[in-house]
User: Which sequence fits this backbone?
């Protein structure tokens, strides 16, 4: 999803899974594996962790960003697209709900890539921040989330599952304002990507619930 697309998360939305359509019958999806209790436990853990990340982002933003014009959920963020490119902030990988054109393997791979990207971005700006506690908490939670995603990948692909290497970043941060913008846009993008993860994980979890109730 584009770095500048931000969708508000109502509290009721974050409180629990919202019922959705079951996972479609697709040749590339092993329903027996997806509905396995061990896999579903990993889905639930991942969902809980990404919820925690999303709920922590506003406080992290508040603690780090003191430039008044940089607001987390603001239409003004669209005006920073050129600056994001100049700083060198990569876009998050596109993440969709599993379908005939977007396999479970691809979905998990994009989740892994996206979380590693945002961990790398947060780690890059961390030394330049005055207040680091909230960002360190995000790094810890995203690390735990990555572990769960990797476990799901191993269940889907076996021990041969190849984990992407963390991206090599070369952020151009000559001054305090650039650091503020980079941190702000990283949190904006992480929020958007996290919302996509919630939808993808919810669809996998709903698959099991629907089958159980039928």
Assistant:
């Amino acid at each position: 999803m584009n770095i500048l697309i931000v969708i508000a998360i109502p509290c009721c939305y974050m409180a629990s899974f919202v019922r959705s359509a079951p996972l479609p019958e697709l040749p590339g999806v092993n329903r027996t594996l997806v509905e396995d209790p061990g896999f579903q436990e990993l889905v639930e853990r991942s969902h809980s962790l990404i919820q925690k990340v999303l709920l922590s982002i506003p406080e992290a933003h508040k603690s780090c960003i003191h430039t008044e014009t940089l607001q987390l959920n603001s239409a003004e963020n669209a005006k920073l697209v050129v600056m994001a490119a100049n700083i060198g902030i990569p876009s998050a990988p596109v993440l969709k709900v599993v379908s005939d054109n977007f396999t479970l393997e691809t979905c998990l791979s994009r989740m892994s890539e996206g979380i590693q990207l945002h961990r790398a971005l947060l780690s890059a700006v961390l030394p330049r921040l005055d207040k680091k506690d909230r960002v360190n908490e995000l790094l810890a939670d995203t690390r735990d989330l990555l572990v769960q995603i990797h476990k799901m990948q191993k269940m889907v692909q076996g021990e041969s599952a190849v984990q992407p290497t963390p991206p090599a970043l070369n952020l151009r941060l000559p001054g305090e304002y650039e650091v503020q913008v980079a941190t702000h846009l990283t949190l904006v993008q992480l929020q958007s990507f996290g919302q996509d993860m919630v939808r993808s994980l919810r669809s996998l979890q709903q698959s099991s619930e629907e089958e159980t109730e039928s």
